[in-house]
Design goal:
412 residues, 12 helices, Creatine Amidinohydrolase, single chain, 17 strands, five-stranded antiparallel β-sheet, alpha+beta, globular, 35% helix, Creatine Amidinohydrolase, Chain A, domain 1, six-stranded mixed β-sheet
């Protein structure tokens, strides 16, 4: 080993960068272990980026998600139902990073000769600590690790006599209810989303490209302390405004076009989502009217919002509004999903509701956060009405924390 390298790996300790105090992480670990006991899981092996973050604060730029076969994703966190600590396993390359982006007290780095593949080391260490007895839960619904690596983990645990179950729901369902600190992060994310939408309004004009607008949005939100969103933000103009998941490109925006923008403000990885439609020049009257009717649903939602609102009630009342407004036959996608922690490639959370869920008995409890999407195909193929907002449910109130006007923004 080189002298400089040894010095860094042994002594370099940047200042901590954590979004929460240690007691918050301890409370999360207690909740996870209680749920594991209920589900009959002795050891939970976590590799999803959202799970690593929730347990320890772990963040990085590269999770080996699409790496070469020689560099499999094997870093992760082990939680045992009978121990009030967790173990973080990672590669030598991340040794310094683990010191300042996590609250972990027990960090075990793969031996240098196994730096690219730690499965053997992980299993040996857990067995030596007596943690490999009973049932192991794996996050089988996570993209990380890929199926081939997941099969190797399964085989390694089973070779030590463990039974394997799907532990995906443990953290996904615990994260449904956010703490007051998490709610505060979501509110800050909403402020950042507002800044992004205002930047879009200022940047959209004839002759600029969609990527020009995208750059201004990202720049403005980053200057405000926003982090990279878990999904690349779409800026879609002209005929592309009839799509929802296309990418901003070098396409030049022209007068007389609709431009749709979808943003997430991100603060300590918590996402607040909003989308708006813009129009360059005076829109046709029927297009403007269709946008007004689509966006008008949020007046109904504001009248309904309260802690404990039922999903079924929200669906029934918004569907009634759309029927009365006469636009339901032109629905694109209407509904929503959980918001919270997000890492690329997705900010869509575990829970989703749609207009078919009128009989749902799910409640928006205090501490929950979802979005609502009102997307309809407007006349003249002008584009989808792109109105998305965040619904935030706190202990004593519920509301729409994003303030950018919910209407078609006309740019002269």
């Amino acid at each position: 080993m080189g002298q400089n390298r040894d010095l860094v790996l042994e002594q370099c300790t940047p200042d901590k960068e954590l979004g929460f105090p240690v007691e918050e992480f301890r409370a999360r670990l207690d909740a996870i272990r209680a749920r594991m006991a209920t589900d009959g899981i002795d050891l939970l092996w976590l590799m999803a980026p959202e799970s690593l973050y929730y347990v320890s604060g772990y963040t990085c730029e590269w999770y080996q998600a699409q790496s070469p076969k020689q560099w499999p994703a094997t870093s992760g966190i082990a939680v045992h139902v009978n121990h009030d600590r967790f173990i973080l396993f990672d590669t030598p390359s991340e040794r310094v990073m683990c010191r300042f982006v996590t609250c972990a007290d027990d960090i075990r780095i793969f031996p240098i000769e196994e730096r690219r593949d730690g499965i053997g080391f992980i299993v040996d260490e857990l067995a030596a600590d007596g943690w490999l007895r009973g049932t192991v839960g794996l996050e089988l619904h996570s993209y990380r690790p890929n199926p081939a690596v997941s099969a190797r983990f399964r085989a390694a645990f089973e070779s030590r006599g463990c039974a394997i179950v799907d532990g995906s729901d443990v953290l996904r369902e615990i994260r449904w209810r956010k703490s007051p600190r998490e709610i505060a992060h979501l509110e800050q994310a909403a402020l950042i989303a507002d800044i992004g939408l205002e930047a879009a309004r200022s940047a959209i004009r004839p002759g600029v490209s969609e990527l020009d607008v995208y750059a201004e949005i990202i720049h403005a939100m980053a200057k405000a302390g926003g982090e990279n969103p878990a999904i690349t933000l779409p800026v879609l103009s002209g005929p592309k405004a009839n799509t929802g998941h296309s990418l901003a490109s070098r396409k030049v925006i022209r007068a007389g076009e609709q431009v749709n923008v979808d943003v997430c403000g991100v603060y300590w990885r918590y996402h607040a989502n909003a989308a708006r439609s813009f129009y360059l020049g005076e829109p046709p009257a029927d297009v403007r009217d269709y946008h007004a009717r689509s966006a008008g649903v949020f007046d109904v939602i504001e009248g309904l919002l309260r802690p404990g609102l039922g999903v079924g009630e929200l669906v029934r009342e918004t569907r009634r509004y759309y029927d009365e407004a006469g636009i339901w036959p032109d629905a694109g996608w209407v509904g929503g999903y959980e918001l919270g922690i997000g890492f690329p490639p997705d900010w869509v959370g575990n829970f989703v509701y749609e207009m078919s869920h009128a009989d749902s008995d799910v409640i928006f409890e205090p501490g929950t956060c979802v979005n609502f999407e009102s997307q309809f195909f407007s006349p003249r193929m002008a584009g989808i009405t792109y109105y998305i907002d965040t619904l935030l449910f706190k202990e004593d109130a519920a509301g729409l924390p994003i303030r950018y006007p919910r209407r078609l923004t006309v740019i002269d």
